[in-house]
Structures are given as C-alpha cells and as structure tokens.
Design a protein that fits this description.
With 308 residues, the protein is an alpha/beta fold. The protein is built from twelve helices and eight strands. Helix 2 crosses helix 11 and helix 4 runs parallel beside helix 5.
Length: 308
C-alpha cells in the first residue's frame, strides 16, 4: 500500500456510513437471507461452494445474540430446502462471547447441533487476539462433547499459531488458515509481510503433515501457488482440501482455481450489521484511496446522464 492508501485507511472511520456502504457492496450479499441465497446460487452455478456468515459482531445484548442464532437456523433450513452447496461461518462475538463464555457456548452448541441434524458444518471464525483462547477452548469443548461438524480458524499473523497447530493435532481439526485481519501488537504477531507469508507456509505444512482438512484462505497469488505445491506434495485428492476466498475479492483468481480443478469456497456475509465487516474489507483493498477519491469527486461533480 502507498503512503496515500495508508493515510486513507486511517481516515476511513471518518468516512460517512452511506459512502462506506456503497463502497463495500461487492463484499456483502445484502441485508436479507434471500440475498445470501441468490449469491450462493450464483456461486454454485460457477462451480464454487459457499460459507454463509450472518453479520452480527456489533451486537450489544443477549437478545441480539439469540436473534443471530435464529438467523443461522433459518440459513440451515434454507440451504437444505434450496439444495445449496454451502456451510456457515460464525463469529463468537455475534453469538454472545462478550456477554459470557457459557452464553456463547450454549448458542454455539445450538447452531452446531442444528447443523449436524441437517448434515451441515460450522466454521468458527477467529477474531482479534482477546478472543483467541476462548475460541480455542470453545472449539475443544464442542469436540469433547462429540460435535465433529465444527472447524476452527488459525491466523498466520499470530506467533502462537504453529504451536496451536501442535496442540490441536490430536483432534485432527478442520482448519481454515488465513493471514489474520486484526492488527495485533508485535509481541504476539508478525508485522512483516514476508514473515506472515513464511508463517503461513510453515503452518500449512504442519497442518497437512498432521492430516488435517485445510481451507487455504487467501487471495495472495504467491500463497495460492505455495498451497498448490504443498497439497500436491502431500498427494491430496480434490476432496481433501479446499481454497477459500471472500465475496468480492479476486474472483479472477478464484475462477482460475476452479478451472484448474481445485475446490473453492467463497465467504458470503449477509445481514444488517454490515459496518465492521465492511470497514475491514475496505482497509485491505489496495485501491481504496482511488475509490474514495472517485466517490468524493463524484459527489461534487454529478455525472452526466443520457448526454444531458
Ligand atoms: C474465506 C476467508 C475467511 C477469512 N476468515 C478470517 C477469520 O476468521 N479471521 C481473520 O482474522 N481473517 C479472516 N480472513 C481474512 C484474512 O485474514 C486476510 O485478512 C485477507 O484474506 C487478506 O489476506 P490475503 O491472504 O488475501 O493476502 P493480501 O496480501 O492481504 O491480499 C492479496 C491480494 O488480494 C487482494 N485483496 C485482498 N483483500 C482485498 C480487498 N478487501 N479488496 C480488494 N482486493 C483485496 C489484493 O489484490 C491483494 O494484493 C479470511 C479470509 C478469507 C479468504
């Protein structure tokens, strides 16, 4: 990112919400379940799988967490009814982690049990480092309670990740490996781009070595190539791993993976709590400065329509 981009990213919270919403349309299916359904249908028709996320990390009370749980149950019913190729991703803050571990555990169990009753799967997203220990513990709790249709996410940015791989290895977990979006202090996280990539490759090797099913979640072409190399070296078949990408990010790269015969799952967020997710995506968009400049100029200089 250029200096201008970095400055714009720092100023993003000052950008008016309607502008943020417009700029982030490509990253979010829409406010309603039907929007997610149509997006998943379109992706499935392109040979891509999906993971549906009910946006909700900005909730402020237990009732809202309960509403998110109900929304997930609706998603599972819809996936089954419409015969979609999709699972779900959950954020533990949206399931009430900030209101208590036990509340979150009960909500997560409800979602995972419903998924199991329909032969579906739940991926627990990983949020900032204040939630890592609880997330790992909740994952372990659920596995100990006999829930096998649940997976976790590890972040290559965190220095602890390789040791987390070792600690989870006995469970042969299903893991999504990503770089990690949250800005963490240098004591616990790599900041250097090359160091994050190197930790990603080390962690992916260790996960494959341990026989884990891995969702290789990245739009970094170099890491995608490393992922392909490692799955080939481990002699994995098509159904034994998958690539994962975010809705609205590098669809060209995703299409290429599908053409090459790899499985690709696209992360499809929907719902009314769109702001925090949108901000994170915009902060990562290398073209953000240009978009904001264009939008700002566009608001001052109206575009000419029909030659008028
Ligand atoms: C399926 C999926 C699930 C994820 N789940 C989590 C999670 O649970 N926890 C977590 O911390 N993080 C999660 N992430 C985010 C991840 O940690 C990274 O922040 C994000 O994927 C960007 O890293 P990258 O590997 O794509 O590499 P980057 O180097 O950041 O990006 C590579 C290239 O992709 C393009 N690109 C990336 N982001 C954007 C964007 N927003 N808009 C336009 N172009 C873009 C650019 O061309 C960029 O050069 C997830 C990512 C994916 C793909």
């Amino acid at each position: 990112m250029t200096l201008l981009d970095r400055t714009i990213v720092r100023l993003l919270p000052a950008v008016p919400k309607p502008v943020v919403q417009k700029l982030s349309e490509r990253y979010i299916a829409g406010p309603e379940l039907k929007d997610a359904r149509e997006t998943v249908r379109r992706l499935n028709a392109q040979g891509k799988m999906a993971t549906v996320d009910v946006l909700g990390e900005e909730i402020t009370n237990e009732e809202e967490a309960a509403a998110i749980v109900r929304a997930y149950l609706d998603v599972f019913a819809d996936i089954e009814r419409c015969d979609l190729d999709a699972n779900v991703s959950v954020k533990l803050t949206a399931l009430g982690l900030k209101f208590g571990y036990d509340i979150c555990r009960a909500n997560l169990t409800t979602v995972v049990a419903d998924a199991a009753s329909r032969g579906n799967f739940v991926r627990i997203d990983m949020e900032d480092s204040s939630t890592t220990d609880d997330t790992m513990q909740l994952y372990r709790d659920l596995r100990r309670d006999g829930h096998d249709n649940v997976g976790v996410v590890l972040q290559a940015t965190l220095r602890r990740t390789l040791s987390d791989v070792g600690e989870l290895a006995d469970l042969r977990p299903s893991v999504r490996l990503c770089k990690g979006i949250y800005i963490e202090p240098p004591e616990i996280a790599y900041r250097d781009f090359g160091a994050v990539r190197a930790n990603y490759v080390r962690s992916l090797s260790a996960l494959l070595e341990a026989g884990c099913y891995v969702g290789i979640a990245t739009h970094d072409e170099w890491l995608v190539s490393e992922g392909k190399r490692l799955v080939a070296e481990h002699g994995l078949e098509r159904g034994q791993y998958e690539f994962q990408m975010l809705l609205g990010v590098r669809p060209d790269l995703g299409n290429r993976l599908v053409r090459e015969g790899h499985r690709l799952r696209v992360y499809v967020p929907f719902g009314r709590h769109w702001y925090a997710y949108s901000m994170r995506r915009l902060q990562e968009n290398p073209k953000i400065a240009g978009y904001i400049a264009a939008d700002t100029i566009g608001r001052f200089i109206p575009t000419r329509r029909n030659g008028a």
